[in-house]
Specification:
Largest sheet: 2 strands, antiparallel
Order of helices and strands: HHHHHHEE
Strand order of the largest sheet: 1-2
Helix content: 55-70%
Number of strands: 2
Distance between the termini: 35 Å
């Protein structure tokens, strides 16, 4: 359900129905979701027989990276280095990032 929700929200963004700045300033969770699945996405698409599966999420994530660096140069690069995903008691990765500030 989480993937479906963010794919739908990102579709609205990509079709211009949501304001990019408003979406990116208030909806960072979609990027955390994309970051967790991006490495398995090609295999997932192949197994499901849909080369466009999660393509709106992926497109929005790439737009977010560009938007972040344009808005605050270097912010995406810095941000990606300090976010880690916490593991719950079962060893599953949480969708909630923990930001470490040193």
């Amino acid at each position: 359900m989480v993937l479906g929700y963010w794919e739908q929200a990102c579709t609205l963004l990509n079709y211009g129905l949501l304001h990019e700045g408003l979406f990116f300033e208030t909806s960072g969770e979609f990027y955390g979701i994309y970051d967790q699945i991006k490495n398995v996405l090609p295999e997932f698409r192949e197994k499901m027989g849909d080369k466009y599966m999660m393509s709106n999420l992926e497109k929005a994530a790439k737009r977010f990276e560009s938007w972040s660096n344009k808005r605050s140069p270097g912010s995406y690069s810095h941000h990606s280095k300090i976010i880690i995903l916490r593991s719950d008691d079962t060893g599953n990765m949480s969708t909630m990032p923990i930001i470490i500030v040193s």
